[in-house]
Design brief:
heterodimer; A: 111 residues; alpha+beta; Arc Repressor Mutant, subunit A; three-stranded antiparallel beta sheet; 64% helix; B: 910 residues; six-stranded mixed beta barrel; 26 strands
């Protein structure tokens, strides 16, 4: 599966989505937006316009599975949940993120 | 999710609606939250829309992302792959070349197998065709037949046609096309391969002419009434340059002068696979085309001889079945033979003659005598080239593997930069695929050459093998399929390994790019052992086939192979009356005797390895047959001094001399004496040959040594030799055997000239040294032996390259280890031993597996072997020894390099 040119940042969004679903279980797109914003505070804004394409892509990659359900306020909504592949991907992305931040950290310390 | 569903996304309006629903849901929920926080409904909605952004662009993104991005990244992958390939032209060259060889050989043999065994005739609805003759039979059989009939006579066809209701049409065709010393437009003599077919032929097959018209059933009534010819498309192109002026030209075949009326389509080359006639002529021209022989007439009340030479086809009516046709044919055929054979025959003879049946079978693939003879050889060869392709794949996998470790740093960097593993995998596999497709494309050229080679080596005494082998979709599909399969085979393991990078260690400075070094080395060694094993199978196989060929070529046939020239003459075709045949033979013999360098001349009815044989029912004095086969014996009709001229020893009694020519005497061979006279003295005993109610009794005057005159394999069957005039009939054609002092081929021109000087109208057929007749008998063995030897050598070479590569890489990787060992006092010899031990382990493992596999596989080809057991220890040992020797050679350079490692440099680099 290909990535957008901005691989790293895209990867960040993926990581955030995967992590949210891992900690909260099944959620719809709006729920994910709200969850990330509440957890991260104002420092991190989810670009809503890129969230849905990302959800779609990750579904096609087999990381997420999607199904139609009814939201808490009785609306029809599309719910996303992690698959086994998604869980594995999350572990990889987390490690990669740790490596990246560690590397960036090293650079900042010694540069 | 696969490409397929991505492609499908483009056509899915349903998805679009789902996107809409999802985005609307988001907007509503956001707006509701805003309202709860105190915004007015309008503001809340506007705020929600602002936050989400341009909905249609998002939707667009979701919809197009898959297809567009996939296309985009594919283009990038291909570009990347091309760049990688150009960066290492050596690797690319070797990989593409070995794949071209492997894939090409596979495609070539697959094409032939497909054409011979699988493909349907290029005619209208081939599934409705039914054969009433045996598709595997070919030739002309004169006499009687029992049980299921092979070929049919013209009379039988004539009685059947139009009378089987299940068929909408029937036709007959000459089972073996004939080569004529013919001419075009009264020009000089040239070889023309022609086939006689009945008028219904083109119509029932349902083919269209490329030019002109076909002759038809209405014209083909009565001998000589349809002096027409249809050209094959290939002959039209070759001989007339495809000119429309070809229509109206004349073709002379024997005494038949035919006018060309049309040209067949380019795809159509007849109903028999393996034959490609130049010309089709109406069957009623037969007595003129083959002068002196009328194969259309049949009067069984006079002689129970049938001339069985035709294939007969029927086309089922829509809805009719083979079973219906069979039961209708059964009734008709019963009538034909019951009314045909004379009621004057003894009850016993009649019963025997009436024991004949027709066996109908579906004939969508047409007739072919090739299926039996070459099918097995082709299957063996397909296995051989399949193994070679596997070895080539193992090699490329190993090379890719080595490169993967060299590139592990690059992979590590890319992973660290966020490239997904799938993406990298895909990139590497794209490269493999590109290499394989290039190999496949080049392989098509190799396949063309392979097909030509195979067709020429597979030709038999019965005639040259000529096949239409177009590169159609099936063949291209097969090639593409094995190219993709090989790409996966050699590409997947290295790609998986290359992308399983540990970022930390890959990026660690000083890492020599030995990612998973131990695992990689193990895998590479396993691949080499695998290659050695496959090579062992191939070498053992080719050893067995080469031994078979050598045994066949060295087989003592009982006379000199190199000193006998043979030519067939037929006074019957030359228009001489039967009463003068014997005198003509003697005259020709005496003329041939005057050629310088000729030591002796004799002749026989069937000739040596000429493809014809005779047998009759036999009663032997004082012998009670216990088995069915003891009631028959093969025989030949021979000229005077046959045995002494060819140098065949007479064991008892005397041979047939000049004074015997009209006497009813025979010489029997040793096998005959053993079977029929076991223990008794054959001399002076009588044997009686029987055909129908005709009987000829002969006195045995001598016993000759067993000689091989028709077959190289198997036991020499019982045979007796009659005199030319004492047999009740003089054969209409004989093969002259000219025994020479020097090489037989040297008298070829003189023999031909001498016969033409005797009578220019006498056709000289099959004039060549006896050794060549035998060579063509072993053409199948030769093909298999030569090709398996060539591919065995290729396999050996590839396995050695693999071994060399792995050892070199191992030495390079262990430079520092070797350095330390040497610093600690290891001698050069020990280092060399270390490398050789490594080699030894791989080779031993491969050999062990290879011997076991070879033992299992060679047993399946035991019927193709001659004079050598499938588990011949000598062959296995020789193959193993060859492998070990070549492996040692491949190991030498890396071992030498290892022994020259300078401890100081090696350790400083650490």
């Amino acid at each position: 599966m290909g990535k957008h040119p901005n691989d790293r940042l895209q990867g960040t969004l993926d990581l955030l989505v995967l992590k949210s679903l891992a900690s909260r279980g099944k959620m719809h797109g709006y729920g994910i937006t709200v969850h990330i914003q509440q957890t991260a505070g104002d420092a991190l804004r989810v670009e809503e316009g890129s969230l849905y394409p990302a959800l779609h892509r990750m579904t096609q990659d087999g990381w997420l599975k999607a199904e139609w359900g009814v939201s808490e306020n009785k609306r029809k909504a599309r719910f996303y949940a992690l698959t086994a592949a998604g869980r594995k991907q999350l572990a990889e992305e987390e490690q990669r993120w740790a490596e990246l931040t560690a590397a960036v950290g090293r650079v900042l310390r010694f540069a | 999710m696969g490409w397929w569903s991505k492609a499908l996304n483009v056509f899915r309006p349903r998805l679009d609606r789902e996107f809409d629903d999802e985005l609307r849901c988001h907007l509503e929920m956001r707006a509701a939250d805003r309202e709860r926080a105190g915004s007015s409904p309008d503001d809340a909605r506007a705020e929600a829309a602002r936050l989400l952004g341009n909905a249609s662009r998002i939707k667009e993104g979701m919809r197009d992302m898959d297809v567009a991005e996939w296309l985009d990244s594919t283009v990038k992958d291909v570009r990347y792959a091309v760049r990688q390939m150009r960066r290492s032209p050596g690797f690319t060259g070797i990989a593409v070349l070995s794949l071209a060889l492997g894939i090409g050989a596979n495609t070539g043999i697959f094409t032939l197998l497909d054409v011979v065994m699988v493909r349907s005739l290029p005619v209208r609805d081939p599934g409705a065709l039914v054969m009433l003759s045996d598709p595997n039979s070919q030739g002309v059989a004169i006499g009687s037949s029992t049980g299921d009939r092979g070929l049919l006579s013209y009379h039988e066809f004539d009685e059947l046609r139009g009378r089987i209701d299940a068929f909408e049409g029937m036709f007959a065709s000459e089972s073996a096309q004939s080569r004529y010393d013919g001419s075009i437009n009264s020009g000089p003599r040239e070889n023309i391969d022609a086939k006689l077919v009945t008028g219904e032929y083109f119509d029932v097959l349902g083919v269209a002419p490329a030019a002109g018209r076909f002759f038809n059933a209405g014209e083909d009534r009565g001998i000589g009434k349809a002096p027409y010819a249809v050209l094959s498309h290939a002959f039209w192109q070759r001989r007339f340059g495809g000119s429309p002026a070809a229509i109206g030209s004349t073709v002379r075949l024997g005494a038949a002068l035919l006018t060309v009326v049309g040209v067949a389509g380019p795809d159509f080359s007849g109903e028999t696979i393996g034959q490609r006639p130049d010309v089709w002529a109406p069957m009623t021209m037969q007595p003129l085309a083959k002068t002196g022989r009328d194969w259309l007439k049949e009067d069984l009340s006079k002689s129970p001889d049938k001339v069985m030479w035709l294939h007969v086809f029927g086309r089922l009516k829509p809805g009719a079945t083979v079973a219906q046709a069979q039961s209708q044919a059964d009734v008709l055929f019963r009538n034909i033979i019951e009314n045909g054979y004379s009621r004057q025959l003894s009850a016993e003879s009649r019963k025997e003659f009436l024991n004949q049946r027709l066996k109908l079978r579906p004939a969508s693939k047409g007739a072919s005598a090739l299926r039996d003879s070459t099918g097995e050889a082709l299957r063996v060869l397909l296995c051989v080239v399949g193994l070679v392709l596997l070895i080539a794949c193992a090699n490329i996998a190993n090379l890719l593997m080595a490169r993967a470790s060299a590139r592990s740093r690059e992979m590590g960097v890319r992973v660290a930069l966020g490239a997904g593993r799938r993406r990298l995998l895909r990139q590497l596999l794209t490269e493999s695929l590109l290499i394989a497709l290039l190999g496949g494309a080049a392989g098509l050229l190799v396949a063309r050459a392979a097909i030509r080679l195979l067709m020429s080596t597979l030709s038999t005494p019965a005639g040259a093998v000529a096949l239409d082998t177009p590169f159609d979709l099936r063949v291209l599909g097969f090639t593409a399929l094995i190219a993709v399969a090989t790409a996966l085979l050699f590409g997947i393991a290295p790609a998986l390994r290359a992308t399983r990078t540990d970022v930390q260690s890959a990026l660690k400075e000083g890492s020599r790019g030995s990612t998973g070094g131990g695992g990689r080395a193990r895998f590479a060694k396993a691949l080499v052992a695998f290659q050695v094993g496959l090579s062992m199978i191939l070498l053992a196989g080719s050893g067995l086939f080469l031994k078979t060929l050598r045994n066949l070529n060295a087989l003592d046939v009982g006379y000199s192979r190199d000193r006998v020239f043979q030519a067939r003459v037929s006074p019957e075709t030359g228009g001489y009356p039967e009463a003068t045949f014997a005198a003509r033979y003697d005259e020709i013999r005496d003329r041939l005797l005057r050629i310088p360098g000729v030591r002796g001349v004799t002749y026989s009815k069937n000739g040596l390895f000429n493809g014809t044989d005779s047998a009759d029912r036999l009663i032997v004095e004082g012998f009670t047959p216990k088995r069915e086969q003891d009631q028959n014996s093969r025989y030949d009709v021979v000229g005077a001094d046959y045995f002494s001229t060819l140098g065949i020893p007479i064991l008892r009694g005397r041979e047939i001399g000049r004074e015997d020519s009209a006497r009813r005497v025979v010489v029997v061979n040793e096998a005959f004496a053993k079977t029929f006279f076991s223990g008794r003295d054959p001399l002076g005993r009588h044997i009686t040959a029987q055909f129908g109610d005709d009987k000829w009794t002969f006195e045995v005057i001598g016993v000759s040594a067993n000689v091989r005159d028709h077959r190289l394999r198997g036991d020499v069957p019982p045979r007796y030799y009659r005199t030319s005039q004492g047999s009740g009939y003089v054969p209409g054609a004989v093969s002259m055997q000219v025994v020479t002092a020097g090489p037989a081929a040297a008298v070829a021109n003189a023999v031909r000239r001498t016969i033409q000087e005797f009578d220019d109208n006498l056709p000289v057929l099959n004039a060549r040294p006896v050794g060549e007749f035998m060579d063509r008998m072993v053409s199948r063995e030769k093909t298999v032996a030569l090709l398996s030897a060539v591919f065995g050598a290729v396999a050996l070479l590839l396995a050695c390259i693999g071994l060399y590569g792995v050892l070199s890489f191992g030495v390079a990787r262990r430079t520092s280890e070797i350095g330390i060992r040497m610093a600690l006092g290891a001698a050069k010899g020990e280092v060399i031993r270390m490398v050789l031990a490594d080699t030894g382990r791989m080779v031993a493992l491969g050999l062990a597996g290879g011997v076991i596999a070879a033992a299992a596989l060679t047993r399946t080809v035991s019927s193709m072997l001659f004079g050598v057991a499938p588990l011949d220890p000598g062959t296995l040992a020789a193959a193993a020894a060859l492998l070990v020797a070549v492996a040692a050679l491949a190991a030498l350079a890396p071992a030498h390099r290892a022994s020259r490692v300078d401890p100081v440099t090696a350790l400083r680099a650490e």
